[in-house]
Design brief:
The protein is of the alpha+beta class. The protein folds into two domains: about 90 residues; about 120 residues, Cytidine Deaminase, domain 2, CATH 3.40.140. It contains nine helices and five strands. Strands 2-1-3-4-5 form a five-stranded mixed beta sheet, with helices on both faces. The longest helix has 21 residues. It is elongated, with a radius of gyration of 22 Å.
């Protein structure tokens, strides 16, 4: 049955307007987000199928390519799903904002929501002023970390542009472990030495996984 053929009081948008979002099921809320179904499946049936088959958490963890492999999900719907996922992460982060970095745990709390479900490694820099207040952040690379690809120039260019006194290197381990690899140490050491030469201090290098973190500051400082 098409949505327009349903009794008006049973349609998601009408129920939302009358009762508010809290009265709607997950599938009804998802249907409002996706807006349309397919020729053979209305949007509520599609939403029920997707949630029953994958669960909201798994859907939000999928990549753009993975979502488009699901029956009924094209590029537009895939982007809609990932947009609401990203907004959820940002809202969660906004509930516990961290302005000042005092330790590696602060770095973990700042990046955890956005990096915890990533399936690829992302390499970020967190830019700080002399009081350790956050003044900016920048993603340097996405994918397998490679010392031949991550050039110190790309790391320090945004730091210098933002007049950062110091930076913290941050990357995630999708595998869940937080032990630094040889590549992690090599990249961090190279950037540390460059920072010493140009006067931008590398305060730490932090590895983040789903629930853990590890600071390799002492390891790279001894190199």
């Amino acid at each position: 049955m098409k949505i327009r053929d349903m009794p008006e009081q049973n349609r998601p948008r009408e129920r939302f307007l009358k009762l508010g979002p809290e009265a709607l099921s997950d599938a009804e809320l998802f249907a409002i987000l996706l807006r349309t179904g397919t020729i053979n499946e209305n949007v509520i049936d599609m939403s029920n199928r997707l949630i029953a088959e994958y669960g909201l958490d798994k859907l939000f963890e999928c990549s753009l390519v993975e979502l488009q492999k699901i029956s009924g999900i094209g590029p537009a719907k895939a982007m809609q799903i990932l947009t609401i996922s990203e907004l959820g992460k940002r809202h969660s982060q906004a509930q516990k904002p961290i302005k000042k970095i005092t330790c590696a745990e602060d770095v973990f709390n700042h990046f955890h929501e956005r990096l915890k479900d990533k399936k690829q490694e992302e390499f970020w820099i967190l830019m700080l002023n002399t009081q350790n207040n956050i003044i900016g952040e920048h993603m340097v690379s996405k994918g397998i970390l490679d010392a031949t690809i991550i050039h110190p120039r790309e790391v320090f260019k945004p730091a210098i542009k933002n007049s950062a006194a110091k930076i913290i290197l941050v990357h995630n381990h999708p595998s869940g472990g937080v032990e630094p690899s040889e590549e992690d140490v090599e990249i961090s050491t190279k950037i540390l030495h460059t920072g010493e030469e140009i006067g931008v201090w590398v305060a730490d290098s932090v590895i983040i996984s789903n629930e853990k973190w590890n600071s390799i500051k002492q390891l790279i400082s001894s190199k």
